[in-house]
From TrEMBL, chain A:
Domain ABC transporter, chain residue ranges per copy: 2-232
Gene3D superfamilies in the record: P-loop containing nucleotide triphosphate hydrolases (3.40.50.300)
Protein name: ABC transporter domain-containing protein
Origin organism lineage: Bacteria, Bacillati, Bacillota, Bacilli, Lactobacillales
GO molecular function, one term: ATP binding
Pfam families, per the entry: ABC_tran
Entry keyword set: ATP-binding, Nucleotide-binding, Transport
Record has rRNA processing as a keyword: no
Automatic annotation (TrEMBL), chain B:
Keywords: Membrane, Transmembrane, Transmembrane helix
Originating species: Ligilactobacillus pobuzihii
Entry's transmembrane regions: 43-64, 70-93, 113-137, 149-175, 187-207, 242-264, 308-329, 335-356, 393-415, 421-441, 462-486, 492-514
Protein name: Uncharacterized protein
Keyword Membrane carried by entry: yes
Length: 249, 525
């Protein structure tokens, strides 16, 4: 169980997150949805210890992140929004680093690398430097790294960006499979179709504020005549424009 | 602390601290453990070479009877290590900007920092190994029981390294904490790296003068605060020695405690702040800018990076400046009365200097590749590629030209040339720079590399570092030969020699210009 209690993040005069309250249960696929600059990445980065919230609490299984960082980090596999990490390492060296960080035995790490590289068709590129790989390939390297420890909580920031349709499909399958094992999957996206396909629950953010938190079915049932796109845009988008569009029809 | 994790972190930092070597070894098919071993080996080799070069000299000195010389050598290698330490700490901790990558991973902060510190120490180690030799030799010559002499030498060396590391850390971490660094990062970084390089230059000059002094057998006046090392090694059983050891230990512990209490606790925040300060910059729109002005502005922004400029200028400018200053200061050269007959010689001297300062690490030799992916995008625009490249060439040639004029003025002044000869030297420098730039700009286009991650990757294109060294020494050798013959010719038959030289220069310049005109005409189309 992950709890965000009144989490805020302020940069100078800008409030990137404003009193965010969210609960995420085990086995759930939870999506953060919002426009650019809505606060999705700030939330994700706060969860994975890259950003320290200005105020509020983040609890994982009842333990506060601030005081139990090491134990909590051991439970999390993270896929950042840009896969441009450790560019001078080869994919294999990057996975070695993660294997050491999560204290995996060499045998276990190797076994998982074999499985995942075969799945993502990356076996031939495992000794290439990450800098020499395409965006999509880099993303696959990072995804494999995040899954090496079979984490209890898998956090992905805009994970579908740059993936080819096959890899995107495989990743979605993996996310669902991970949740089926009783593990938590949290991701951010601005792709409504992905959110609709995957999310058990979602939070819609707008300018750092939570404007919806609940299941997709509940949301859709409130506006039975509208598509998810219409609902989302009427909540988070430029409503004036939407109305003008509707008037034209 | 987990040993396996520390080992992996060191492995990663080693690669980041040696991007060029890493790339070269990867090209040879090495990765994983093999690559790590070859990176370690490179430190060992450079340590051994340094030890061999200085060891041969140092082994003949009886330092136990020459406390002044002892302290000077310790100071000299200390200065070199200090210079290397500052740039290594800055590069490994700040320039790599990789801390955010480690934050989500379950590493302890201490593990990340210790791995970085170890890589910094490893970078400093080869350069200070002669100090270890000096320490052990001094103790042995002072008739200390040999095994004890070795142990004392090793311990004193450890303390020496810790002191240097702490001092470097204070400067780098202290400076990067200031408001000045936060506001003017590029400027402060340039200053920091210039100070680091400058200390090395002073060190080299001191070494030259010191070598002359010790060759005559006289001991120098000792540097008092370094005598503690001398007494701790030569009189370990006496009160002087004991007091020295206590003093050194207290100093080292004091410095390390300050480092761990004052800097380490806030280091994560400091490093994060330095990597995340992406300031929102708003610029006033300049009205009526034509393409020439826009491209000029773009090219200026492209090179507006302190470490990039430092790497380029230190490789192409520092060497001639170091040579000149160390020769000029240690010798007694005065060309004040140089006859006008030798104007051609100084002119050719300028050309020769330009062939040394303009090399594969110069700005002009990497200007197109600095564009990275922008270059491919520019190609897609309805813009004449020739015009675009011409703008770029004109921009960098102005910088290269300014540099060579400055260098020739410094050299002319140090060697007391008459003003007219300095002018001739500068003109020669400008011509040489222009000709060499034509070659190197074209070379950059031929060996275009747009997907580099470290600018040093660009320097090793073509014949690599070995090529750079051969090129530089080849230029020096050929230039020295030509200048010697030319000088002799002018000495015996000035009119004929200057006449023949002028015709040859005009012919070579003409052929060179025609060749590159045709080369670029093919690119323009």
């Amino acid at each position: 169980m992950i709890e965000l209690k009144k989490v805020s993040k302020v940069y100078g005069k800008k409030r990137a997150l404003d009193q965010l309250d969210v609960n995420i249960k085990e086995g759930e696929i939870f999506g953060f949805l919002g426009h650019n600059g809505a606060g999705k990445s700030t939330t994700i980065k706060s969860l994975v210890s890259i950003i320290e919230p200005t105020s509020g609490q983040i609890l994982v299984d009842g333990q506060e992140l601030k005081t139990h960082r090491q134990e909590i980090k051991q439970k999390i596999g993270y896929v950042p929004d840009t896969p441009d990490l450790f560019l001078q390492l080869s994919a294999e060296e990057y996975w070695d680093l993660l294997g050491a960080a999560f204290e995996l035995s060499d045998e276990l790490k190797q076994e998982r690398v074999e499985q995942l590289t075969a799945l993502f068709e990356l076996t031939a590129q495992r000794y290439d430097t990450i800098s020499s790989l395409s965006h999509g390939m880099r993303q696959k390297v990072i995804v494999i790294g995040a899954l090496l420890s079979d984490p209890d909580i898998w956090i992905l920031d805009e994970p579908m960006q740059g993936l080819d349709p096959q890899a995107a499909y495989d990743l979605k399958q993996l996310m669902q499979e991970h949740a089926r094992k009783g593990k938590t999957v949290i991701f951010s996206t601005h792709d409504l179709a992905t959110a609709q396909q995957l999310c058990d629950k979602l939070a819609i953010l707008k300018k750092g504020q939570l404007i919806y938190n609940g299941t997709l079915t509940e949301l859709m049932s409130q506006y039975p005549e509208k598509s998810l796109e219409d609902i989302y845009l009427s909540m988070a988008g430029r409503q004036g424009l939407l109305k003008a569009g509707e008037a034209d029809e | 602390m987990n040993k396996k994790r520390l080992k992996e972190l060191i492995k990663v930092n080693l690669r980041y601290a040696n991007p060029q070597q890493t790339m070269q070894q990867r090209d040879k098919g090495k990765s994983g453990k093999k690559l790590t071993r070859s990176l370690y080996r490179q430190y060992i080799y450079s340590g051994l070479i340094f030890l061999l070069i200085y060891g041969v000299v140092l082994i003949f000195f009886d330092f136990s009877a020459m406390p002044g010389t002892f302290t000077y050598y310790v100071a000299l290698f200390g200065v070199i290590a200090f210079s290397q330490g500052i740039s290594a700490i800055y590069n490994v901790f700040f320039e790599s900007a990789d801390l955010p990558n480690f934050l989500p991973l379950p590493f302890f902060q201490a593990e990340v920092f210790i791995s970085k510190i170890m890589v910094v120490v490893l970078a400093m180690l080869p350069l200070v190994l002669p100090v270890l030799l000096v320490f052990i030799l001094t103790a042995l010559r002072a008739k200390v029981f040999p095994p004890l002499a070795i142990v004392l030498g090793l311990v004193a060396f450890g303390l020496f390294l810790s002191i240097i590391f702490s001092l470097c850390s204070f400067i780098v971490f202290g400076l990067t904490k200031t408001q000045l660094f936060k506001k003017h990062r590029q400027l402060v970084t340039s200053l920091l790296l210039i100070i680091a390089a400058g200390t090395a230059v002073i060190g080299v000059m001191t070494m030259n003068q010191q070598a002359d002094a010790t060759a005559s057998g006289n001991d120098r006046r000792p540097i008092v605060f370094l005598l503690t090392f001398f007494y701790s090694l030569t009189q370990p059983e006496q009160i002087n020695g004991w007091l020295s050891w206590i003093g050194l230990l207290i100093l080292t512990v004091f410095l390390l405690v300050i480092f761990s209490k004052l800097f380490l606790p806030k280091l994560t925040e400091q490093l994060l702040a330095s990597t995340q300060t992406v300031k929102k910059t708003t610029k006033k729109r300049r009205k009526k800018q034509n393409l020439h002005q826009l491209l000029r502005h773009y090219n200026t922004q492209l090179i507006n990076n302190a470490s990039l400029l430092m790497q380029m200028f230190s490789n192409s400018v520092m060497l001639p400046v170091i040579f000149t200053l160390s020769f000029g200061v240690s010798g007694n050269y005065d060309f004040n009365q140089l006859s006008l007959n030798f104007l051609g010689v100084t002119f050719l001297g300028g050309v020769a200097l330009a062939t040394i300062t303009t090399n594969q690490t110069s700005l002009v030799a990497n200007a197109i590749s600095l564009d990275q992916q922008n270059f491919l995008f520019v190609r897609s625009l309805p813009l004449l590629l020739g015009e675009y490249l011409k703008e770029k060439f004109l921009f960098v040639i102005q910088i290269q030209g300014t540099l060579i004029v400055l260098i020739t003025i410094i050299i002319g002044t140090v060697f007391s040339f008459p003003v007219v000869h300095i002018f001739s030297l500068s003109l020669g420098g400008l011509l040489g720079t222009y000709l060499a730039s034509l070659y190197y700009f074209n070379r950059d286009y031929r060996l275009l590399c747009l997907d580099w991650t470290e600018v040093s990757q660009l320097f090793s294109r073509g014949a690599g570092n070995l090529g750079l060294v051969f090129n530089m020494f080849g230029s020096v050798l050929v230039s020295a030969l030509i200048l010697t013959f030319y000088t002799l010719g002018v000495y015996f038959a000035p009119l004929i020699t200057n006449g023949v030289a002028s015709v040859i220069v005009v012919l070579i310049v003409g052929v060179w210009l025609l060749h590159y005109k045709s080369v670029w005409e093919k690119v323009w189309i």
